[in-house]
Amino acid sequence: MLCPTSPHLALLALLSVAGAVGQGEPCPSKMNLIKDRLQVNCSGQGLSVVPLALPRNTGILLLSTNRLELILSHNALEVLPTLQGLPALTRLTLAHNNISELLPGAFRDVGKLTELNLRGNQLRTLPEEAFEGLAGLKDLDLSDNALEELPQGLLAGLELNTLWLSG
Ligand SMILES: *[C@@H]1O[C@H](CO)[C@@H](O)[C@H](O)[C@H]1NC(C)=O
Ligand SMILES: *[C@@H]1O[C@H](CO)[C@@H](O)[C@H](O)[C@H]1NC(C)=O
């Protein structure tokens, strides 16, 4: 049944206006015919926050090549999510998850990181090459894990300002 004065639509319209005023042009969207979902492309727009005024039926949101920080704290992640498509990411927060293992070169796809927070996970050991390629990393937080020792070459090639190892 059609309901032309739906309050949801009105709210959506208000949000759209607010978003358009606050954040410039909305991201282009089109139907992704393969996945049968509305795909909104906010890539490469210099965003520092995820836009609020997205179409309500957005099924796929592309956010690569922006200035976003990726914060995935307090989930139940047990493995590192795939980080491809985020080459400009500078800050990655994976604190308070359940990650027990990092593979060598785990952060190779996000080589511009300056800050990496792995606090409060279940890491027991780390491969020597865990942080390989992170030449710009300044701040590494490994506190509150189950680490008993660090491999000798772990910090080779890094120029950290701060390494957190408490707990
Ligand atoms: C998304 O937008 C960016 C920037 O305009 C463009 O380079 C890219 O090809 C688009 N991606 C898709 C899947 O449409
Ligand atoms: C984390 O992993 C442990 C051991 O596998 C499990 O007992 C616990 O429920 C997990 N925590 C969460 C939040 O998933």
TrEMBL record:
This is Uncharacterized protein. Keywords: Leucine-rich repeat, Repeat, Signal. GO terms for cellular component: extracellular matrix; extracellular space. The keyword NADP does not apply. Gene3D superfamilies: Ribonuclease Inhibitor (3.80.10.10). The keyword Repeat applies. It comes from Gopherus agassizii. Residues 1-22 form the signal peptide. SUPFAM superfamilies: L domain-like. It holds the Pfam family LRR_8. InterPro entries: Dev_Immune_Receptor, Leu-rich_rpt, Leu-rich_rpt_typical-subtyp, LRR_dom_sf.
